[in-house]
Amino acid sequence: MEQAVWRVDVNQQTVTTEPVPAGWQRLGGRGLIPRILLDEMPATCDPLGPLSKLLFTPGLLVGHMLSSCDRLSVGGKSPLTGGIKEANAGGTTALKMVQLGIKAMIVQGAPSGDDWWVLHLSQHGGRFDPAGDLVGLGVYEAAPRLLARYGDKVAIALIGPAGEMQLSAAGIQNLDKDKEPSRIAARGGLGAVMGSKRLKAIVVDPAGTSAPELFDKSLYLDAKKRYTKALLAHPQTTTYAEYGTAAIAMMCDGFGALPTRNFSAGHFEAVEQISGETMRDTILARGGEGDPTHACMPGCVIRCSNCYAGSDGKKISSPLEYETIGLMGSNLGIDNLDDVARINREINDLGMDTIEIGAALGVAAEAELMQFGDGAGALRLVAEIRQGTPLGRILGHGAGMVGKVFGVRRVPVVKNQAISAYDPRAIKGTGVTYATSPQGADHTAGLTIRAKVDHLDPAGQAALSKTAQLNMAGYDTLGACIFGGFGFATAPGAIRDLLRGQYGWDAGENALQDLGRETLALEREFNRAAGFTAADDRLPEWMTQEPLPPTQAVFDVPAEDLDGVFA
Amino acid sequence: MEQAVWRVDVNQQTVTTEPVPAGWQRLGGRGLIPRILLDEMPATCDPLGPLSKLLFTPGLLVGHMLSSCDRLSVGGKSPLTGGIKEANAGGTTALKMVQLGIKAMIVQGAPSGDDWWVLHLSQHGGRFDPAGDLVGLGVYEAAPRLLARYGDKVAIALIGPAGEMQLSAAGIQNLDKDKEPSRIAARGGLGAVMGSKRLKAIVVDPAGTSAPELFDKSLYLDAKKRYTKALLAHPQTTTYAEYGTAAIAMMCDGFGALPTRNFSAGHFEAVEQISGETMRDTILARGGEGDPTHACMPGCVIRCSNCYAGSDGKKISSPLEYETIGLMGSNLGIDNLDDVARINREINDLGMDTIEIGAALGVAAEAELMQFGDGAGALRLVAEIRQGTPLGRILGHGAGMVGKVFGVRRVPVVKNQAISAYDPRAIKGTGVTYATSPQGADHTAGLTIRAKVDHLDPAGQAALSKTAQLNMAGYDTLGACIFGGFGFATAPGAIRDLLRGQYGWDAGENALQDLGRETLALEREFNRAAGFTAADDRLPEWMTQEPLPPTQAVFDVPAEDLDGVFA
């Protein structure tokens, strides 16, 4: 189908289609989000108010089951940071949206009543179905009901109770290829924006449609072959298939950068008990529903996802990722994966960002609302979120909110978004990314841990972060997973040829970095209009003063270096 | 005594004195605060962290019991707004500080332990006394204990439980001339900053000192006579003596600008029951400890303060001010003064800003945490603040926090500080002040209700607000009460002659506006360095969309006008 912009007005309950404006055509995914917002929305608007818009933009390469390249970007103004927000996820939503011809979907307006709705999209257009029966349900219960109602060929993006409560750590869950609601566009509170529009779920029914036509099929297929071959040949592809993202736990701990007890240390004495190696051994030994190797989207050759089962062989959580292990394991002083998986499951079901909530629980432990190491205590706090108590709501708004309300000084946030599982004092290039990314603290905006540099030396980290940020903004605009980079980096020209084969236009020799540069420039333009300044591009003050054991490092990349990244 | 800068290091527990730098000499009160902070403190610092400084600066005219001109400014970086903060109060603290020769007191550093202290200041310097016995006490219990310990000639600035908990609505209470802790530097959370320094109280013992010498006594006394005569001749002086600030309730309601049920209306059907006239009649009828006319500082000829007693003749609250009646009366739908006075008393005792908490309770009522009109329900919520429960802490951080946590859209704040008791949709010049004042929403930064203009017409409001803001910043720098302006406005040259008579230097023909202009320029410079932009100089979005009954006005002063105020 011809690609179009789908506009959803939740006030009038209409869904209309429009041609794609010229300025939007060569953007997609993350890069298209600030472009649309700058064109259509006042940057100063209330993110949960009637002027706010919620965007769904498949990446440029989405639609053809290219390995790791069918990711969905969701975007808008973040109720957590107050700035631009893009959160992306695997699963099947983007693929099926592209099959319907959706270049971008813009959800706008304020609902006229308090009822909840399912937005149903198909080749016949869009409609609003009542969702009263789904209100308050976690995603693990809501998704099967939706599949029973709409058939199991649909893709679904949905929110949990956290999104309904408009909590700032609420994300948007998507079905994976096995129809589990496990692929969350997690960060920055976009689930709250969806909740403010009173949409419990978006169902994408691709019946009667197929993949969009390629402009130059042979060029495309040739590039695809080169990319896939390069990806399969990369040693990290095997590592991630076997251990998932948790492969990095031991490495990060070795650098003294594993968040431990609310970022008070970078080494966890029990790291081996929560490592990727232990996780794999445990999954294999227990058998049953557990699986160490699982693909989140059709066609992916990496398959870094997993399914973690309990001692009875029954699934607890899928997936169990490194960031969750870091933030809900070592960061809470919790040394066993069963506890981590149980907390993870609850947060997934509520439809929330495990990084933000892990960090929030760490601050809560510092405020003596739970004990470090107490998995049951953490689950009790998570239960408060589900109940919507005042304490639960505080936690559900993230680490910054917990610190503010309870007067804790050691709060790991930038632009009010939680720092992920790489302490920036010991991995300083990633610290530059946290500080300067328009997205707030986010490792996926430019992780530097694999660079062969002295991560403790402040010199050169700004340049390192800049390259990583440009690359990642490029991948996010393509709809490519961070691990797709293993292939693209060793298949020169593949991105250019894939885009030319798919669309006919030439993105040039430096397609990836050019897309990344444009994306970041647009994002920074949005943030400036929203009121951000250089003062926002800083790590928390205490991280510049408080040494991190065991390296005793502080974050000491100079302010001039931070301000120079995008100068 | 020679005026000096007193520097208090709470880490080393030292108090040292320094000569006044040349650039600080012709500033005082509000104007001196941003000057010191720009010279000494990174504007981006954590307001509750070790780099933050808390300032006490008597106004330029303080020290000679000039009517309404012995006010104390307290300042620092606001934990509520993240920007510059000055809050001023009457009482006796400033007068006695000046007698000790204190031009400015700078409290700095991070405490090394968890103990609480009394800072004792006298002609022998400063010392730290243990305050363990005062921890957790409200100001009504703590103040008499301090007076018993230090003698009844001292001035005291102290915090209540709210400041100890570092809540963002915590202020700093000061003794009035009758030794009641009733004069609060209320706004912006400076009590939390004092709490972060672990100072429960500051005791100022002036024994052995006297008023500083005048440079030209006859010039000063002549100017004083002109000013006092003008003040006594002004009709408003009589009005405020009889009715206090509550005189304005009926007028504000008449304009349709009286905050009613969380700013959802501008007229309160029961306004007559909470008016200044009713208050005066009630106080006089009940007799006992009640008193409709009371001076907060020695020498004041206006005496706008009061003491409100219950039907048994026993004092409930002193003073009961218009802002409290507006925010805790009509704004909560509460139609009897006894309830308002009881809530007021609790908030005073906790050491908090009644405007911020009144607005917070209004938002809480909208979130269905209490019912509008239910005084007992409001007192139950206030009890949560005292107990330090999660809900209490949310409330104690102010209206913005309540709105954020509970997802309420109608939240009356600018720069996260609550709007006071003049709805800006119906008094648009004051709306311009709320939007553009570096202090956040604050009527004392430039109230326009008395101007003879159409308050509903957006035209010309920016210029009106600008003049009011310059005047008020000038008065705050002099240490003059807002009502002192009734006298200064009709005694030309009095300010210039008073300053020349006191110090010898010539502040020029436009002394008031020049001081105001310099003050505002410094404050804006601080805020810019802290990361503020034009995007922060706006009223909440909903106030531009939601009509206010009965006038059905929205706030429609154009953004260009707002940006032009200080351009």
CATH homology group of one domain in chain A: Aldehyde ferredoxin oxidoreductase, N-terminal domain
Number of strands of chain A: 17
> If interface size is counted as residues with C-beta under 8 Å from the partner's C-beta, which chains form the largest one?
A-B, 37 and 37 residues
Quickly count the helices of chain A: 21
- Strand percentage of chain A lies at 5-15%
Strand order, biggest sheet of chain A?
2-1-6-3-4-5
CATH architectural designation of one domain in chain A: 4-Layer Sandwich
The averaged pLDDT of chain A comes out at: 97
Write down the CATH topology of one domain in chain A.
Aldehyde Ferredoxin Oxidoreductase,  A, domain 1
Structural class of chain A: alpha+beta
Largest sheet of chain A: 6 strands, mixed
Unreliable residue runs of chain A? none
Helix proportion range of chain A: 25-40%
Q: What's the short story on this structure?
A:
The structure is a homodimer of 567-residue chains. By secondary structure, chain A is an alpha+beta fold.
